[in-house]
Amino acid sequence: MKILYLDCHMGAAGDMLTAALLELLPEAERRRFIERVNALGIPGVRAELLPDVKCGITGSRVAVTVHGVDEEGPGGHCHHHEHEPGHCEAHPGCGHRGHEHPHEHGHPRPHGHHHRTLADITAVINGLDIPESAKSRAAGVYAAIAGAESRVHGRETGEVHFHEVGAMDAVADVVSVSLLVEMLAPERIVVSPVRTGYGTVKCAHGVLPVPAPATALLLEGVPVFAGDIAGEMTTPTGAALIKSLADAFGEMPPMSMERIGYGMGSRDFPAANCVRAILGESAEKAEEAAEIFCTLDDATAEDIAFAQELLMDAGALDVYTAAVGMKKGRPGTLLSCLCAWERREEFARLILTHTPTLGVRIYAPERMKLSRSVQTLETRYGPVRVKRASGYGIEKAKPEYEDLSRISRETGRPITVLRREIEKLI
Length: 426
Known about the structure:
Blueprint: E1 2-7, H1 14-22, H2 27-39, E2 45-54, E3 57-66, E4 69-70, E5 115-117, H3 118-126, H4 132-153, E6 161-163, H5 164-184, E7 188-191, E8 194-195, E9 200-203, E10 206-209, H6 213-218, E11 224-225, H7 236-245, E12 248-249, E13 256-264, E14 274-281, E15 289-296, H8 301-313, E16 318-325, E17 331-340, H9 344-354, E18 361-363, E19 371-379, E20 382-391, E21 394-399, H10 401-411, H11 415-423
Helix pairs in contact: 1-5, 3-4, 4-5, 4-7, 8-9
């Protein structure tokens, strides 16, 4: 299994995540990627990949300008969106280049002080020549940021305004990260506990605590710690990206490291100010699986179905139920969840939270599994995905149900007929 591990012990920002993921590509591809981003047509955006060194570690930094303006500017700033125009002044120790708020301390602004709504930014993203999956992730990240800001300020999401420079700067970061994840294609992404920093930042709304209110909302459910550095170490863009990317949070799982990338922040600290990205392989073995059981006699069918959906959405390998007889002759339901061994506590907590059970049992079953792959066949109906499995001298293949369903709706032909026809081509 290909695993991407993101080490955010020094916090996270969009530019740092971009640079860290870029370093996982071969050097020639990094330059081509930056050229691709610059050619996308994000209004006014120009990105540059620069070498950087922190505490003796060599890495990369991504510098983005919008209409020639570098958002960081003299003195730095806090990473906070606003509804009204205003300047933003950094608290000493703010660790990263920001993405959400332009600096206007001494910068000429020939294009004026513009703002964009979430609808404006979504339109920009949807107009880019990038895969639909990358558009969907990027738009979702910005929707999460706008949703957090609307909760903080008590306004409708559509009323949230993003400053022109900060908005387009962040679009470049969010789109870049979305594209890079597509290119690297990890099967699982694990993120470390995230440093937030501590103290306060001074913005146009006044003095705010660290993490900033929007960042705190975006980090709900994420393991975080303040650390020993004053200032804002994780930005709203960084928080939203992490939440979007992570399949799990925790320390690095057992894996064979293949490539390591360092994405640098602009500030210098006694510790290396960077996000570290590690790409590697983790072979799935029998002892790495966990099966979690509980029996339920006081949950409705709807409650159990909802718990099953949550477990599958969280990445369970399998979830099933079975009817059982319980003590005192009561009928009940056995709920079983199969998951990766290192995620057993995470799934156990989900079951304990979303069902009435007071305890679960965890086993380590031995598993034999076929290796799986997906092939795309060109047919007279268009492309059809075929699932293949092999191992132990066994070969299996079958057309993807969703593709057969789509073709059936388009043509009116029964799925059983389509399946037989496609199987002849396999």
